[in-house]
Amino acid sequence: MHKTAKAILEELRKNGEKSATEIAKALNISVQNANYHLTRLAAKGLVKRREISPRYIMWSLKKQADDQ
């Protein structure tokens, strides 16, 4: 797993649900990079998305991601 993806999982583990923008700021990466890794993590079943509006999505860990 890529180091950025691992950092995103750790950020969500420590601080709970966040937007891609909040994750990007916390990790000092671009929002596009955060979205890329979040989408890949979601495809692996490690994170889930909650759509607030079509342009605002919150991300959080799925239970099995806590075990990794």
Structure overview:
This protein is α+β, with helices and mostly antiparallel strands. It has a single domain (3-66), classed as Arc Repressor Mutant, subunit A. It contains 4 helices and 3 strands; from the N terminus they run αβααββα. Strands 1-3-2 form a 3-stranded antiparallel β-sheet. The N and C termini lie close together (11 Å). The relative contact order is 0.21. The mean pLDDT is 92.
What is the H/E string? Answer: HEHHEEH
How much helical structure, as a percent, in the residues? 55-70%
Kindly estimate the percentage of residues that lie in beta strands according to DSSP.
15-25%
Cα Rg: 11 Å
The first-level CATH class is given as: Mainly Alpha
- Helix/strand-derived class? alpha+beta
The low-confidence parts are: none
Biggest sheet overview? 3 strands, antiparallel
List the helices and strands and how they pair.
Blueprint: H1 3-15, E1 18-19, H2 20-27, H3 31-43, E2 47-53, E3 56-61, H4 63-66
Antiparallel strand pairs: 1-3, 2-3
Helix pairs in contact: 2-3
